[in-house]
Every structure is written in C-alpha cells, then in structure tokens.
Write a structure and sequence with these properties.
This protein is mostly helical. It has 14 helices and five strands. Strand 1 (about 15-20), helix 1 (about 25-40) and strand 2 (about 45-50) form a beta-alpha-beta unit. Helix 10 runs antiparallel to helix 13. It binds tryptophan (TRP). Tryptophan binds near residues 49, 145, 156 and 160.
C-alpha cells in the first residue's frame, strides 16, 4: 500500500474509531459507518482506530480481545471501508501515539477532567465506585489518538463532543506553548437520530438490545419480534408519544430508503405484528450483501490480520512523524 502522508491542506484527514467491546450494530451503521464510507468515497484520507487499549478503562483485557478486534475489522470492511484507500489500525500497536499522552497531560488540569460530562457518564455507566485514573484521563488519550493523526475532521456521536473539545483545547495549548504543530480537529456529528434498541432504550453494544450488523436473519427476526411496542392497535409515526413504534418505523424507513410516515401509512390498522414483519424484512434485505461479505471476511482471519498489520504500519509512520514534530517543538531531540 503506498500512501503519501498529505498535509492538512491536501485531502482532509479523518479519524474516528470504536472500542472492540461488541459487534457493531444498526445504530453504528446509520449513525456513523455509512458516513465514514461516504467520506472515503469523497476522497478523504480516512483513518479508523480499533481502540483496543482503551477497553481497559472500564473492564479487564479479556482473552477474547484478538477475536473481538478481528470482528471489528470485519465489520468495517463489510460495510465498505476499503483498505486500499483507508487505514485501519489497532491502538496498542502504535507506541508513538501513546507517547503523546505525557506532554498532553501537562496541558490539562484535574478539575477540568473531573468536569467532563462524558467521563462522568461513562464512569457511572460502568458502575465504577471510584473514578479510575485511566477513566479520568480518557479525554487526553482520545486527544492523543486524534492529534497523532493530525486529523482535520472527527466524525463522532454527540456524546463524544466534550472529548473533542478537550482535543481542540490541547491542540491550541500545545501550539501556543511550543509553536504550531497541530491542526484543530473539527467534530462532524451524524445527523441521524440515535436509534433505540429493542427494549426501547438507547441501542448499545453492551446492553444486549442491539441488532448487530453481522447477526443472522433468524436472530434479527427474533429480536424484532420481541421489540417493545405499545397498546395502540393503529400504527402511527409519533416520536414524542410513541417512541418504540416510531423507532421501528425509522429503522424500517432507513433500511428501505423511504420515510417513517410512509411506512406508518402503509401499515396503519394492520398493527404492530405487521410492522415488525416489515421491519424484519427491511433490515434483513438491507444487510444481506453486508452480511454475505462479513461471512466471507470472517472465514479468512489471516487476511483480516494482514489488513490490520498494513494499517498499523501506515499509522506508525504517521505517528512517528507527528512525534518527531512534537519532539522538535519541545526541544527533546538529542
Ligand atoms: N471514545 C470513543 C467511543 O467510546 C472511541 C474513540 C477512542 C474515538 N478514540 C477515539 C473516537 C478518537 C474518535 C476519535 O466510541
């Protein structure tokens, strides 16, 4: 793979990523993955981070991690991230990236980190009795991911905005103290409303309420059949008062490329079971080619590893280059 490393003035460089804590699901697909593919197609230099090292902020590093990483890579490739044009890398394999954390820690204060709403949310979601030091400093680690790439654009969910603001602040403070090294990364927030899981709560990898991209058609059917609805026998689109039914309508519409109102009109008095059959068909139809590709990719883990290693190599080059700029600016080159 021959990648030139363009400056911020060339192709925009885009970084985003996920922790390998479970299979990616429809919320990821519509909220973020399709946007990444779109950015790739429009010529951006897309870099995707498998945030393996960051799984230990709120859990032990399990023996399943290698398989979890492979599955995440397969998820990315199956939806259309193209390793010929994009870079997929594993966080733990890029030492220079992690070396940025020490100078960055010198640029932030503990009270600032304590105020970060995403840190607070994630610590309480993880049921942490006391705040771990890695959880507290997570925004600084994420800033290192972003700034190691000297990324221009970071597509993320709205929940990640406080982290992005921290990365921007660190870039500004570093540049002010040592001279201009980092572009200020811009957040790109997905416009799609966040999808609910089959229990009516936010669709989430760790809540067991999500329809995985790689799930079988049968499992998809069972999950949707079990989805919560309400007592009103006529299907209407009313997101404020009927969130569960409306969520199924949105999901169906996204998969079909129609609108939730249109689907509601067509189902109407035929009720929730007809809606669920329609949703199941729409999801399975939309995911069919992605799942076929996923099965092919999963059958060849050697190829997945090779793709990841090539991405690691490219990211190491880029992070080494960033660290060299940082070292020069900080007068730590002897
Ligand atoms: N914090 C992100 C999440 O939980 C994952 C992540 C880690 C990330 N480093 C990143 C996202 C850098 C964008 C850029 O989903």
């Amino acid at each position: 793979m021959s990648h030139t490393i363009p400056s911020a003035s060339g192709r925009p460089r885009v970084l985003t990523g996920d922790r390998p804590t479970g299979p990616l699901h429809l919320g990821h697909l519509f909220g973020s993955l399709l946007n990444r593919v779109r950015l790739q197609e429009s010529g951006a230099d897309l870099i995707v981070l498998v945030a393996d090292y960051q799984t230990i902020t709120d859990r032990d590093s399990p023996a399943t991690l290698p398989a979890d990483v492979d599955r995440l890579v397969a998820d990315y490739l199956a939806v259309g991230i193209d390793p010929e044009r994009a870079t997929i890398f594993a966080h733990s394999q890029v030492p220079a990236l992690n070396q940025l954390v020490i100078p960055f820690l010198s640029l932030v204060t503990v009270p600032e980190l304590m105020r970060n709403p995403t840190v607070k949310d994630e610590a309480s979601a993880a049921g942490m009795a006391t705040l771990g030091a890695l959880m507290l400093t997570y925004p600084v680690h994420q800033a290192a991911d972003i700034l190691a790439c000297r990324a221009d654009v970071v597509p993320v969910g709205a929940d990640q905005l406080p982290h992005l603001e921290m990365a921007r602040e660190i870039a500004r403070r570093f540049n002010r103290r040592y001279g201009e090294v980092f572009p200020e990364p811009q957040a790109l927030i997905g416009e799609v409303p966040s999808l609910l899981g089959v229990d009516g709560k936010k669709m989430s990898k760790s809540r067991g309420n999500a329809i995985a991209i790689s799930a079988s058609e049968d499992d998809t059917e069972v999950l949707i059949r079990r989805a919560r609805t309400d007592a009103d026998p006529v299907i209407t689109y009313a997101p404020a008062t009927r969130p569960e039914v409306s969520n199924l309508l949105v999901l169906t519409a996204m998969c079909e490329g129609s609108t939730p109102e249109q689907v509601a009109d067509e189902i109407g008095a035929r009720g929730a079971s007809a809606l669920k059959r329609r949703t199941t068909e729409a999801v399975n139809e939309r995911l069919r080619p992605i799942r076929a590709r996923h099965r092919e990719l999963s059958a060849d883990p050697g190829q997945l590893r090779q793709i990841l290693r090539a991405g690691n190599a490219r990211m190491n080059e880029l992070a080494d280059e960033t660290l060299a700029l940082v070292s020069a600016a900080m007068h730590t080159r002897y």
